[in-house]
Design goal:
Blueprint: E1 3-8, H1 13-23, E2 31-38, E3 41-48, H2 51-60, E4 68-74, E5 89-90, E6 96-101, H3 107-115, H4 128-137, H5 142-150, E7 157-163, E8 166-175, E9 180-183, E10 188-191, E11 203-206, E12 212-215, E13 220-223, E14 229-230, E15 235-236, H6 252-258, H7 260-268, H8 287-292, E16 295-300, H9 302-319, E17 323-327, H10 328-331, E18 342-348, H11 354-365, E19 369-374, H12 380-384, E20 387-390, H13 403-422, H14 428-439, H15 441-450, H16 453-462, E21 467-472, H17 475-491, E22 494-499, E23 516-521, H18 527-539, E24 543-548, E25 561-564, H19 573-591
Parallel strand pairs: 16-17, 16-18, 18-19, 19-20, 21-22, 21-23, 23-24, 24-25
Antiparallel strand pairs: 1-4, 1-10, 2-3, 2-4, 5-6, 6-7, 7-8, 8-12, 9-10, 9-11, 11-15, 12-13, 13-14
Helix pairs in contact: 1-2, 3-4, 4-5, 7-13, 7-15, 9-13, 9-17, 13-14, 15-19, 16-19, 17-19
The protein binds fructose -6-phosphate (F6R).
Length: about 600
Amino acid sequence: MCGIVGYVGERNVTPLLLESLEKLEYRGYDSAGIALVSVKGIKIQKTRGRIADLRKIVEDSGESECTVGIGHTRWATHGEPSDVNSHPHLSRSGRVAVVHNGIIENYIELRAFLSTHGYSFSTETDSEVVSELIDFCYAGDPVAAVRKAELQLKGSYALGIIFADFPEQIIATRKDSPLIIGVGENENFIASDIPAILKYTRDVFRLDERELAILSKKRVAVFNELGERVDHAIEHIEWDATAAEKGGYPHFMIKEIMEQPEAISKTIAPRIDAEGNILLGFKSISDDDLKNIDSIRITACGSAYHVGVVAKHLLKNWLNIPVSAELASEFRYDDPIVNERTLVIVVSQSGETLDTLYALREAKNKGARTISIVNVVASSIANESEEVLYTWAGPEISVATTKAYSTQLVLIELLGIRMAQLRGRMDDEQGKALVSAIKSIPTGIEEILKDVQTVQYVASLYFNSQSVFFLGRNIDYALSLEASLKLKEISYIHSEAYAAGELKHGTISLIEEGTLVIALCTYRPLLDKMISNIKEVKARGAKVIAIINNDDVQTGTVADHIIRIPACEQIAVPSLTIVPLQLFAYYIASLKGCDIDKPRNLAKSVTVE
Ligand code: F6R
């Protein structure tokens, strides 16, 4: 999604903004721009295309030495990617420039309102209304103007704002869209995400909902909605800038696939003691609360939702209560029936996905207990849920998630096992055996990652496929959803995941000579059924790659190719099965020459509906 950066200090701001914007490229964007402010006024440079295009425009126009500015990468929502629709937006008066992340839902009404006061608009965006509205509200006091304008804005926003009359400051504010403040010596920053400014400062804090910050070279003053001064504790970022670099790999995605053993180890380590007991460390939700839960609803978007689909099967069996996995964008508008005995688990890498955040709020408003599984510390979802379990996957830069998915999966499993123990559904020994199997997952994944040749080979045979079907039953179906998403999002090959038993109710008509079918055959109780399904598609000309357990001697006799996962306990199987499928998607996309880390039209952190 859109990225924001801003700087006030002593450095030449232009190269700094361009470099910081490059660090946000992974979020996905289609245009970029910067606005500089000095005593001479505000200067805007923006363009459709890549940062490299913007850099060229800036260089061709000649260096301008300025020390205060804001920058933006736009991911189009309202209006096509074009020069004019790009941010920053400068008010017609030339007094106010704005970068905006989010969506202004009432922009049509506001445009109409401002038009009656002589304002006119040149873009198709919702964001242009913000610069004009602030301009309309401006009577010499920037903070008063921003606060007055905010009262009229509906929707979500993170804003970086500069005023021509105040060339030594930036104003930042947010609602339902993240924004961080970076603190330096004689310089301060705003950014959508930490990697943008990590080169310059490791001291950051997150602006809370509806807070407003005034940044000048020497200080950052933050105020809440009531205008009261707020002090934020500074978070010192420990991870090295290289954690957000490719480290010798051609793409972040493959680097992050390779990091999975370590990410899983780091995620589970703080949750398991030396005796194999699970430590949830909850403060608001007691053991008794967990015993009293009578249903669980897992809600999330995309791959995080797919984690929920796997977990639904496991948790339902362990706990013997209804467990559902639901898309957050559906859940939030479905008037969900929940109460204080419902546990709503929300899963999110970024902790900022708007639909997931709103699903969480909906659940809380209706009295459900809430636990989030989140990667980004102190993100909105982490802050707003009753309890948070952090995945310690480190920064995930590739748009297509891999290590966040894997760490979410093990963490939700630990939560389910602990609940089953508390509720007397699993004795200590059973729980500890499962924990020990979870602890072995990193080793199993390492084994897969040591030998990627088989996956590379089958990818080389099928990278020209037009369409791919993933089939599985039960947990294998849940994994198929993720495997299919992985392939389609980065390789642009049409793919679908099907519950294998459902295929013959219509979709089998699409199977023809040479159609690639990937059959997930690791769910032992239904292996015979899967073998029958493989035979059905083979009879219609399909080519079949089967993902199988190490000891499976049957499937290889019907499939064209097999990929074996190492021998492991049953609970480790899903975590291992997904890895060759991530690799398959990666190698196919790589052979097709796709822009793997930044697939077209996609964004890393989806902060709009
Ligand atoms: C797919 C992918 C997305 C995210 C989804 C939720 O590879 O990464 O489907 O899983 O957008 O994002 P988070 O986890 O940040 O809430």
